[in-house]
C-alpha cells in the first residue's frame, strides 16, 4: 500500500482532517487505545501492528461517513519530515507538542527493498516499535503519554505511516 503523504495535502484538507480527527477522538476511542495498550498492544510486536491497523480503520470508516475525500487510506506522516502546522495540536499548555520536527528516519531499514530482511511479522513489529517509541518521545507532550496520545491528530497519520510499512512487508 502507499498512503498519500500528509504533507502533500492542501492546507485546507489538512485543517479539515485535523478537525475531523479531533471529533473522532472521543473518550471511548481514547479508552479503546488505552485498554489495548494495557492488554499488550505496546509490548507484543504482532498485536502492536494488528491493533493499530484496526484502530486506524475505525477512523477511516468515520472519515468516509463525513465524506472526507482522502479518508481511505488515511494519509501518512513520515516523522523524518516536520509536523504540518495544522497538526500542531495541542499547541499550548503542558500537553502541547514540544517538538514539531522529530527527525526520525525509518530509512533505509524499512524501505521497500529492505523489508525482506524481516523474516516474521514479530521481527518487523519489534523493529518498528523501537523506532515508533522514539518518535513519540521526541515529539513529547501528549504524544509521549500512552494513554492520551490519540488526542493529538498527528498520532493517526503517524500510525498510518507505520501501517504502510506493515502493508508493504505483507506484499513481499
Describe the structure.
The protein has 172 residues and is mainly α. It has a single domain, classed as di-copper center containing domain from catechol oxidase (Orthogonal Bundle), CATH 1.10.1280.10. Helix content is 50%, strand content 0%. It contains 5 helices and no strands. The protein has helices spanning 11-24, 27-41, 45-65, 121-139, 155-171. Helix 2 packs antiparallel against helix 3 (45-65) and helix 3 (45-65) crosses helix 5 (155-171). The longest helix is centred in the first third of the chain and has 21 residues, at 45-65. The chain is globular, with a radius of gyration of 15 Å. The termini are close together.
Amino acid at each position: 500500500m502507499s498512503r498519500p503523504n500528509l504533507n502533500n495535502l492542501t492546507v485546507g484538507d489538512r485543517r479539515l482532517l485535523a478537525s475531523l480527527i479531533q471529533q473522532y477522538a472521543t473518550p471511548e476511542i481514547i479508552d479503546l487505545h488505552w485498554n489495548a495498550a494495557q492488554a499488550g498492544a505496546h509490548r507484543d510486536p504482532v498485536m502492536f501492528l494488528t491493533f493499530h491497523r484496526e484502530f486506524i480503520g475505525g477512523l477511516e470508516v468515520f472519515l468516509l461517513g463525513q465524506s472526507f475525500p482522502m479518508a481511505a487510506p488515511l494519509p501518512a506522516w513520515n516523522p523524518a519530515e516536520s509536523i504540518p502546522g495544522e497538526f500542531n495540536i495541542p499547541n499550548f499548555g503542558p500537553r502541547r507538542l514540544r517538538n514539531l520536527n522529530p527527525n526520525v528516519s525509518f530509512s533505509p531499514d524499512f524501505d521497500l527493498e529492505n523489508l525482506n530482511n524481516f523474516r516474521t511479522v514479530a521481527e518487523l513489529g519489534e523493529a518498528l516499535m523501537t523506532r515508533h517509541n522514539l518518535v513519540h518521545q521526541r515529539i513529547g507532550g501528549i504524544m509521549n503519554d500512552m494513554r492520551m496520545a490519540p488526542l493529538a491528530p498527528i498520532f493517526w497519520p503517524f500510525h498510518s505511516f507505520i501501517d504502510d510499512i506493515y502493508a508493504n512487508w505483507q506484499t513481499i
